[in-house]
Amino acid sequence: MMVNSTLVEKTPDGVNLTAKALLDVLTPLILDLSRELSDRERYRRLLSSLRALFPGDAAALLRLEGDTLVPLAIDGLSSDTLGRRFRVSDHPRFEQLLSRPEPTRFAADSDLPDPYDGLVQGVAGHLEVHDCLGCPLFVRGRPWGLLTLDALDPARFDSIDMASLRAFLGLAAATVSVVERIDTLARSSEEERARAEAYRQASSQSRREMVGSSDAHTHLMKEIEVVAGSDLTVLITGETGVGKELVANAIHALSARANKPLISLNCAALPDTLVESELFGHVRGAFSGASSDRRGKFELADGGTIFLDEVGELPLLVQAKLLRVLQNGQLQRIGSDQEHKVDVRLIAATNRDLAEEVRAGRFRADFYHRLSVYPLRVPPLRERGRDVLLLAGFFLEENRSRLGLLSLRLATDAQAMLLRYPWPGNVRELEHLIGRSALKALAANRERRRILTLTAADFALAAAPDEDRVQKTQAETTETGSKDFRSAVTEFERNTVVDALARHDQNWAAVARELGLDRANLNRLAKRLGLK
Fold first, then answer.
1. Are 283 and 333 spatial neighbours (Cβ–Cβ below 8 Å)?
2. Which of 26, 175, 188, 445 has its CB surrounded by the most CB atoms within 10 Å?
3. The domain containing residue 508 runs over which residues?
4. Given a cut of 80, is residue 275 above it in pLDDT?
């Protein structure tokens, strides 16, 4: 390895201190290139070496994906930074860094907003004056992403040796190139390459990303990868708001059918009389209002995937007809005797216990067994630990862009509250909470600041919602000794809807938004509970 002469700095005993310091940092990274390490560990070591060589208060490695920078590793920044997605056009500093081939240092008095305002650990306020340095990384001649380094001292990088920095950037580019090559080798087979391309195509569309790093989330992602390569029917179960539709999208995107349609149908959003027509289609004159032939969802999904959400709401008659389609791929449009052959993979989702529904006679046993070939449980948010902060970061960045803010961040007490709260509405509840709280906080701020910090008070969450009611229900159950599980669930559902109606002055649309339910689904629930 050759050392630039500008690095030479002799002492009386002849030791080249600057070159030695550089080699001490770079040598372990060079050795790492031949070791089997996870991507996360490689990136962690890279940032650790960067801060050892060029001391600062925060560092980050971000990968460029289309027009968005995605944080892969951070050091000295708030943990929710990893969940954020920085659209380059929204951040002039990032835009400048990517437009130049050389490292760029911003003046301390630069008027360009800093994407990390409010995210540097140990800094509660706006980063009025600090030192900021950014370096583009190139892999095979193309921009791959950025390395950023921030220091609270505005003069920290005054004496930085650019030759040393360039040497480090060369090794950083080699590190990310190794990761890229390892990922490519892992997809060496034709089938795996097809999956990667399918995932790329799916990612280029406006689909939500599955954010998380907890053990529960990692296990779910591995399960998705396992089943995606097959044509097995998948039954996705989980509570309301956990992201079952995102899981279905991910399975389809990683499957061999990814370049074919993914057709979705919410079974709870349609009257019973229209479900059959939506699924199988109809011919002209089949019923009043059928003025022309129409293909159903199954024909539209031919060659691809059909996703039936809230499958537990399907009428028993439709379940029987669906069973026939799943068995032999044949269907008939309403009003027609002609058979249509379809090749469709089925993914279904429900928040109901279908095994219990079968025992109660509300769901066909044969259809249930046909659906649950590969059951996949989506964990509730309360089981995902610190994923709540990553998801919060994702939603904060979405709302920051939507509200036109320079920065939207969480105070320490807000982060603590998010980690304590049990999230009965799961990810959907978190998404709505962030959006609602950001909008209210901005409206309450008379000065219309462009940097907004959300506190625990803005969320107005109780640490244990409905605790008094739970205790009361438990006491009543103990006294009577006869309240079964379903009755307790029904009572909880009724109390939840009644309380929401009281808060929103009997406005059903507002209640549906708060509970994260489709309006038609809420109407069905209300009828079942005797509220309508």
1. yes
2. 175
3. 467-528
4. yes
